[in-house]
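May I ask for a single protein's sequence together with how it folds?
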Amino acid sequence: VKMFISQPRRIAAKSLADRVRSCEPDLRNKIALRMGHGVREYETNETQAWFVTTGYLVKLLANNPQKFDSHTHLIIDEVHERSVDTDILCLLCKRLLASNSKIRLILMSATLAAKIYQDYFDVRFPPIHVGAKRFPIEEFYVEDLDHHIHLPSKQLEAANVIYQFCEKNYCNTTPPSHLVEKMHGLAVQIALSVGSNGSSVLIFVPGMADIVSITDLVEKVEVHGIAFTCFPIHGDIPFEDQLQAFEPAEPGQVKVIIATNSAESSITLPDVDHVICLGLCKQITYNATSHRQILLPTWISKASATQRAGRTGRVRPGTVYRLYARNTFEHYMDSFEPGEMSRIPLDSVILNLADMLKEEVIPILLDCLEPPNISNIDRSFQSLYDSNFITSPDDGGEITKLGSLVVGLGIDLTLGSLVGLGIQFGVAAEAVQIAGILSFPKTPWVMTNPVFHDPETFNGK
């Protein structure tokens, strides 16, 4: 037996590899980890199973499909997330199955839209439930809070305002900023009320600003005899810093883990007794007029809500507090999130596919799980041509030298173009430095947040 197990994020691949190795001592030398940028851990001559990121597996399967001739199984976990990498990986696996009858493909998710994948892979096997027996989980919505938890009058008023908004405005808009602030205060009060010595509370929020806001609120509260300590999980936080959330709570401590959807699936935090969910996330939205992607707050799907609730009840009973109305969940939330490929410009997707597969891209995209709109494909070809990444604004062009450079760098296309122009004009070092600065998600002229580092120490370096 030899297999790859893909995970959508680095933190998930790392934590699962470590957990399997710790749970089964006999398997320690048989489990390895591979991720992008040359990360390799635990590999030995006895390795039989590799935990990998989805992006790594896409490139491996596209560039070296014969590698899989010696493998027996390929597991794609969390397929419900429908990222570009996951959908492309499913496409490549469909091709692999047509030429390799020995390998077995296993698709996994706690919220699997089975029919989509049954139709795509042309199989009629019913999905198999293999989950271990879970401990009971109690779920409370915002209108239930006053009956099940003691809250100050200010927070009860906030819960009522949130409930009224959900009942009247759900279909039209996400909560305005002042209402999200009320959600922050309510989430913190719930955490302070239910947090117990040596346990953890997990709060799901849409973005970094919410993590900072809730951390500030928690640190302003003094609870006699118990230390409430915040641990953030977010894609912009250094990988090693996020791993602190997996350490057991110390005696006299309550861990308050504040996370975006990075912690929604794949990872296990055993000591989480309570989950608090704001019901919001940041989602990329495609603006066809400007051919740009915008990151906007939006309500989560039912699948995401289920995944978030599943972070508790692993080793003992758990509780989930949803800071939105029951009616919102049951009647208005989408069952699943739309695939990422329908929500972004396809420039980078097209350029990378053309480079990896060396064939026409349109037939590939139209063979995806949910093919993107042909007009979006055409816009991206024109954009790539205008940026000098391809030689013609259609599927018949070749990748230019600049296009090959950008693909090799693996960075944003605009920044890659900047590096290419810097090389052309003899200022390569300066262009690389500027691109590196611009690739950072935040301005470099901001004091570090105390959530991550001590400002006096960090900014004094």
Summary: The chain has a mean pLDDT of 88.
